[in-house]
Amino acid sequence: MEHEKPSIKPIAYTYGLYSGLLSIAGLVILYALNLESNWIISVASTIITIYIIYHGISTFKKLNANILRIKDGLKVGMGIALVGGLISAVYAAIHYGVIQPEFLAGKKEEAIDQMMTQNPNMEGEGLDMALKMIDLSTSEFFIATMMLVGSLFFGFIISLIIGAIMKSN
Length: 169
Hints:
Elements: H1 9-32, H2 39-63, H3 70-99, H4 101-118, H5 124-137, H6 140-166
Helix pairs in contact: 1-2, 1-3, 2-3, 2-6, 3-4, 3-6, 4-5
């Protein structure tokens, strides 16, 4: 008797929510501790994210009569990464736009100072273009987009590895 393959959506939504909440918690902790970054939080977040993706793929495999193809593992992991990345990206845009706008303003100042130190004679159209690029790369939209892209890239790599390890023979 053929079994029916379970839906990936509920697993992706559930574990993606966990992943997104983990990212939000990391940003809130950094903000509360008045830190720009912290390697301990980064390492812990990475390990927990890997566990979340592993657990999501494992849940799918159990619901699928202990059958897992690499393709299915990739779909589940990418679904988790997409949902988590979207939640993280939306929160990051709000966080850096409303809660902590001084962070991006400071990054913009640093970038302009560094640019002017490296190219003190820059002027005209080159200067305008460089300032536009700095404005773009220090915007909430850019940060949110990079969070989403990073989440998808990391999710792809981890899902591929976990799917290959857990696949059914």
